[in-house]
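subagent[fold] <- orchestrator: predict structure for attached chain, return tokens only, no commentary.
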Amino acid sequence: MLDIKFIRENSDIVKNACKLKNITLDIDQLLSIDKELVSLKTEEQNLLTQKNGLTAKIPKATADERPALIAESKGMDEKVKALKPKAEALEEQLKGLLYLVPQIPSPLSPVGKDDSDNVEIKKHGVLPKFDFTPLDHVQILEQQNWADFERIAKVSGSRSYSLRNEMVLVEMAMHRMAMDKLISKGFNLVSVPAFAREEALFGTGHFPQGRDQAYFIPEHNLYLAGTAEVQINSLHANEILKESELPILYAGYSPCFRSEAGSYGRDVRGLIRVHQFMKVEQFVICKNDPEESAKWHQKLLETSEEILIDLELPYRIVECCTGDMGTGKFRMYDVEAWVPSELKYRETHSCSSLYDWQARRTQTRYRDSENKVQYVHTLNNTAIATPRILVPFLECHQQKDGTVKIPAKLQRYMDGKPFIGKAVD
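subagent[fold] -> orchestrator:
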């Protein structure tokens, strides 16, 4: 959410941001509603001022004067009451439109319409070469009895999966490895519920546009969150923190749920696009300072790189263009790991800086060294998300005999095993 004063004074900049992010929003209409609301509130305040003046006169008035003054005062009350419904309706309209206003993207972000315009900025690692016909991740899982798709779909519906045997341990090992790394970097490890109230999803910016991606439980008025970012972002809602408390670093571990509405027919094989997954999310709350935000954005990006290096996976980093970065993002990177069966990189991490866009929605603030109340900046990035990371992991580390290599840094979480699986003929 942007400050309405900023929108009033910089309407052309905001309109351009809408254009850059492919957002259809009538900023002139928003400003017209704002102007009408300001006018109504001014009228209301003037009426209240006049009423207060009349009220002050009543005790000093003569008996003959008082009835007229009292009647006039009541008339003022009626006029104020008549204005309230219209003002409240305009406030709701304005609030709804303000939720749609995008963050102004960084001037360093590439301009583009969609992910095809994202810009590759780095590659790391050597792509695997095989002296045998490699399998895709589903074939590997089925060959080793590491997952079930058909039976669990009968129980839980499409896009479900059930990991089995050693793959369950691999998944847990990856999360533990990521958690240990974040703890060593000063992050507070937190587990969060799967549930969140509607206001928390508005707080991150997943609502109002992303309602079709969330599962709703109407009898409890709760939603299943698609990332721990949702819950963590609201932990300090309506608080005024001390500057000395910043930055606050959270590593959020949670089950995540996404309906994947609109993606039918795309990427539905195996573990790539499922409805439920587990994730460790990096989340930073820092001072309202561009340099501080940029520093933490790089640190979050470096941490996800370190995790992929520890997993010995080739990856690349792309900077997301304005049309692919999302409404609230100031600047955004995707980290993508190599998937041999598809001969392409697939996103495993999404690293975002949002400045104070989320903080204004949640009213998360701090008092700075000059005793001024400021909105915090928020940033987030994946640490590890399963089962998606298992796709490049299995395919890149598969061996000729059917086993899968366990990278050295992960072995300590797998009882020291350098390989898993049974050799096949």
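orchestrator: received. Logging for downstream: Residues 66-98 form the longest helix (33 residues). The chain has a mean pLDDT of 95.
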